[in-house]
């Protein structure tokens, strides 16, 4: 993520990123050795520094890119939606699809914040807060429109996000329920919780 | 957790356990060195083996003891409660109090399952499933009694537990809301979600 000249460089960087996610997911960030990461992608340990400045920055950029994609995805999902109930349904749908598709990155994003520098941690928390605030705003708009009456939109936005993200812990594409069935169950549950079933 | 003769042994074991939780919480299980753990409690690295058979077993016993206490606590909380709504309210109350009081152990319990042996992992999952099934049974009993109508008690039990456990991520005793206020918000939210507000 430092110098990446040409398409080979981009491919190598993608491979490093992918291998990094797998290693951190499996063993934890602190236990990850850069030498092992270089071996995973078939390059010399020294060459790794063409792509990564250091371990901590690698983690930061990994988490940052994931959050950027998450925020952009949500932006597209909610574009032009004024109705709060419709926006809430779309948020649930988007959050569940995105998080079940990227379980490993979600896990790392929740676990390895402890290994970030103070400055990088603040930046990541700022982005997470931005994402959470989209849901909070939807709940507030529903309050204003008389669609529902949520006493504490901030706490309830945390509650909804935690409940949806929890699906990562047990969801399997080969499980009892399809993704669409799960989304239907959670949508009904959340609409009931806010009083808009 | 192997040989613990006399009260000094028990105290040392408790100190090892406490130091272990802090280390795993901060750096991750794989990055924890037994030598550092011995230093934390002021004993020789070799003496540690009077208390711990090996690292993996230490983690297993740590998680197992936490789950045993959790299950026993819930048992006491629900003893003699027949009414499903009352049982649900008590479950929410108990889960929130217990998890906000023991954030570090909760974090480890959610993160470090990857480091357990297959047999130990199965044992821990069995205990977690037992805990989750108490909530599922409450939801089922509410269905049977006509108290509410929850379409998929298993999924909804996961959803409720994830949403409650999520409070660990942001709760602070010095925060905007007291523990009682948080419990009131979540109770109302969950009762709404199952249709029993």
Keywords:
mainly alpha; 70% helix; 8 helices; 2 domains; homodimer; Tetracycline Repressor, domain 2; elongated; Arc Repressor Mutant, subunit A
In the CATH hierarchy, the architecture of the largest domain in chain A is: Orthogonal Bundle
Query: What are the low-pLDDT stretches of chain A, counting only 5+ consecutive residues below 50?
Result: none
Give helix % range of chain A: 55-70%
- Name given to the CATH homologous superfamily of the largest domain in chain A: Tetracycline Repressor, domain 2
CATH topology of the largest domain in chain A: Tetracycline Repressor, domain 2
Q: Quick one: which chains have the greatest interface?
A: A-B, 37 and 36 residues
Provide the structure class of chain A. Answer: mainly alpha
Number of strands of chain A: 0
Q: Characterize the biggest β-sheet of chain A.
A: none
Report the mean per-residue pLDDT of chain A as an integer. 93
The number of helical runs of chain A is 8
What is the end-to-end distance of chain A? Answer: 46 Å
> What is the strand content of chain A?
under 5%
Q: Give the SSE order of chain A as H and E letters.
A: HHHHHHHH
């Amino acid at each position: 993520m430092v110098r990446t000249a040409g398409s080979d460089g981009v491919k190598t960087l993608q491979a490093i990123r992918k291998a990094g996610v797998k290693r951190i997911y499996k063993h934890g960030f602190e236990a990850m050795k850069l030498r092992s990461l270089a071996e995973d992608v078939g390059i010399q340990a020294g060459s790794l520094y063409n792509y990564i400045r250091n371990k901590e920055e690698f983690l930061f950029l990994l988490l940052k890119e994931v959050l950027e994609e998450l925020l952009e995805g949500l932006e597209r999902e909610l574009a032009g939606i004024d109705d709060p109930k419709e926006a809430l349904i779309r948020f649930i749908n988007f959050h569940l699809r995105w998080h079940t598709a990227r379980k490993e990155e979600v896990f790392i994003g929740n676990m390895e914040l402890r290994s970030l520098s103070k400055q990088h941690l603040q930046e990541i928390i700022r982005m997470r807060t931005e994402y959470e605030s989209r849901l909070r705003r939807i709940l507030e708009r529903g309050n204003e429109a008389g669609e529902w009456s949520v006493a504490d939109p901030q706490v309830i936005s945390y509650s909804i996000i935690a409940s949806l993200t929890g699906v990562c812990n047990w969801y399997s594409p080969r499980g009892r329920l399809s993704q669409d069935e799960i989304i239907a169950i959670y949508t009904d549950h959340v609409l009931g919780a806010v009083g808009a079933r």
